[in-house]
Fold these 2 entries.
Entry 1:
Amino acid sequence: MGFPFTKAAAILDTLTKNGFRAYVVGGAVRDYLLGRRIHDIDIATSARPADVVALFKKTIPVGIEHGTVMVVCGGHEYEVTTFRSEKGYDDFRHPNTVTFETSLEKDVMRRDFTINALAMDRSGHVIDLFGGQEDLKRKVIRTVGPAEERIAEDPLRIMRGIRFTSELGFELGRAEFDAFRDHCRLLKKISVERIDQEMTRLLAGAFARGALQLLIQTGCLHVLPVLEGPIDETELLRVRFSLLQSDEERWAAFLSATGVTGIHHFAKAWKWSRSREKAVFLLQKYDSLRQSAGWDRVSVYFAGPDRAKAVERLQAAFQRETSDILKDRLNEIDRLWRALPIHARGELAVTGHDLKEWSEEKPGPWMSEALAQIEKEVILGSVSNRWEDIQTWFKVWRKQSRRY
Ligand code: ATP
Ligand code: MG
């Protein structure tokens, strides 16, 4: 077997030619052996950060104190990290001490799971000290060393382990399952940003259902912020997350299924960005609108076609609609959208300026009120989007409503 990471070969060559040892490690080796797409390549080396900086033309010091230098090579970025071991995690975030090491063995021992502790040298030979290849074949997540110890050291590994089951379709080892269950409360020590990051990836995994089941069975789900209360687990396990296409859709589904009301409260506790909070909020709003009234010109106009389609996928994910007709539903939304006379207020043939001239009133809140009404009439087709028609409509409306 040759060396498959051809673009990274030059980096390994430079390091080895200068007397250092260097390997591709972690996720890249795992994903290569699984035939999965490789997204980033991490390199472990005996070279110290200063050596790495000196050897390569373009480097970025992303974490020198932890031994990591980003090497930019052929337009790609590679994390090159000095072999290291870690001791103590008193803050459950950073190891208390990071010690640079001279051997790969010490470096792979600090890694979380056997399937993530694989390394490959420049000749394509896999170095597998903990049976990671066997675990890849058996499709099992096992920690490097005793599960209890490794979890106590860094409880985020619970979320990472379950997230990997979701992405890879693997099982947890027996000892790992027990350790996750027995120590689930340690997750409270982990920053919510890191929990959120893992949870978001967990929901996106091809095997999310199994992973959610593990979160339930180990008791971890109820340790997560805002999820302490009773949850309809059957409902949660019924959701077909694979039909959903964005993190926002998956979170909206997750929150509906777990019965969390009050997106704002959840978003705050989970430190979501404003944009995610808003997107999830709107999806849920249009989801309940769609359930009670279905789509029409007005709701498709205000939701926008992308959000309306996301709502259809939510409907299908909850099996309120069979998924065979999902495609028809999505086409229907496109049809409704295309048939709209305008697609944004800016496309109206009149502006606030016109209204002001017609009514000879001072600008004020009445203008946006009138524009909103005109917008609605145009969308519904009761007034055509022509300047003169809108003017005629406006004059009648003004008289009828005795204003402006
Ligand atoms: P992916 O990038 O798909 O999440 P990955 O395995 O590359 O998978 P990263 O988070 O990028 O995961 O971490 C790179 C490597 O660092 C892992 O393969 C693992 O060996 C090690 N690692 C990451 N996080 C931890 C942790 N919390 N404890 C121990 N080792 C870790
Ligand atoms: Mg990675």
Note: The chain has a mean pLDDT of 94.
Entry 2:
Amino acid sequence: MSSGKKCLVGKVALVTGSTSGIGLGIARCLGEQGADLMLNGFGESGAIETLRAGLAEALEVRVDYDGADLSQPSQIAGLVQRTQAVLGGLDILVNNAGIQYTADIKDFPAERWDAVIAINLSAAFHAMQAAIPGMTSKGWGRIVNIASAHGLVGSAQKSAYVAAKHGLIGLTKVGAIELANTGVTVNAICPGWVLTPLVQAQLDARAEREGLDIEAVKHALLTEKQPMAQFTTPEGIGGLVIFLCSDAARTVTGAPLSIDGGWVAT
Ligand code: NAD
């Protein structure tokens, strides 16, 4: 995707949860293709400003940041409005922000369930609701929901996450059907393991619990789920987003697209 003409010049992309991990990788790929960017996510304000200014300079696109808390519907509407006001529209919406919490159902704190569902599922609904009118009035739009292999299969101790990600794929299908003849596509990407802060926290906890070194835990984590003993990269997921934004992908809609080292093939 790096050679040739930039394919997203003149488009505006909002990537939620793009101060870190997969979202940041996707934002970088979209910016490399010429899209102006609205970043979102938590972090230390100085570090975020350094990130924002660095991306704008390196990619030669406009980059803005909004720290909306995606557990709050009114802040999500504000995030979409700010994108449209500051960057002149919203063509590509990537619903990526997500959190994890692990515990057996019997021990799962209700407030953690509510937070995981709010950020990993309801936020995508609220963002889509706010973004769709602008996209349909232009006759072009791309909505990409970052689900997970856990949108297609379950794992113990991840009830809220698995429920939210399955729900996100359902929301994707409904959006695709409703928008089928509007020029707007809606798809879900289902990554396997990606080595980001979200997964590093799980690795660290397991290394401590099992008294293993990190390399041994990485190998165990990968191979107990994926035939391929490799992490997927944020750039790989970004490449898939760029494909979904291309004209070649104009009839790809409502699809859960796996990029997971064969996880759901087993
Ligand atoms: P991460 O923790 O590195 O990044 C999450 C991002 O979301 C950060 O920018 C964070 O600030 C932001 N965020 C969290 N809560 C927020 C809130 N309330 N409001 C606004 N922003 C918020 O995680 P990641 O691994 O990059 O995960 C990104 C997405 O990919 C998530 O939806 C996750 O479920 C999904 N995913 C990750 C993996 C993996 O192996 N890492 C696999 C499959 C799917």
Note: Residues 110-138 form the longest helix (29 residues).
